[in-house]
Amino acid sequence: MIHESLQRTEKLVQQLGKKLQQSQKDNEALQSELISLRNQLDSKERTLEDFKNQIKIAKLVNSIPVEDLESAELREKINNYIQEIDNIIAYLSE
After folding, report:
1. Of 61, 57, 66, which is closest to residue 86 (Cα–Cα)?
2. pLDDT tens across 48-62, in order?
3. Residue range 18-34: average pLDDT?
4. For residue 84, which of 65, 63, 66, 57 has the smallest C-alpha distance?
């Protein structure tokens, strides 16, 4: 009777050990996934901020009162600057 009880207890301890190991593996996988998702979120937030800045710049450019010829030249220059900045940001993000 004591022997049977001891065997059941040993079996339960073994099962508990296996479940603990599986839970630890699951926890490690979830931690890794969490880190990956946080990195993705940070990247998307930076991209969103870049787009917000581009919109602000575009609004600023459109609000500058200048003659049509000067306006077209100025807009072209600013658009070129924006493209250069985007290229630099993309390069630095790599």
Report:
1. 57
2. 888 888 888 777 777
3. 96
4. 57
Using an 8 Å Cβ cutoff, are 86 and 93 in contact? Answer: no
Which three-class secondary structure state does DSSP give residue 26? Answer: helix
- DSSP letter assigned to residue 67: -
- The pTM (predicted TM-score) of the whole model is 0.56
Which pairs with CB-CB distance under 8 Å and at least 24 residues apart come from 44-52?
46/93, 50/86, 50/89
Token digits of residue 83? 């493209």
Alpha carbon distances (Å) from 80 to 59, 71, 73: 16, 14, 11
60 compared with 29, residue with greater pLDDT: 29
Question: Strands, E, within 42-84: which ranges?
Answer: none
Residues 6+ positions from 93 with CB-CB distance below 8 Å: 43, 46
CB 29: neighbour CB atoms within 10 A?
A: 10
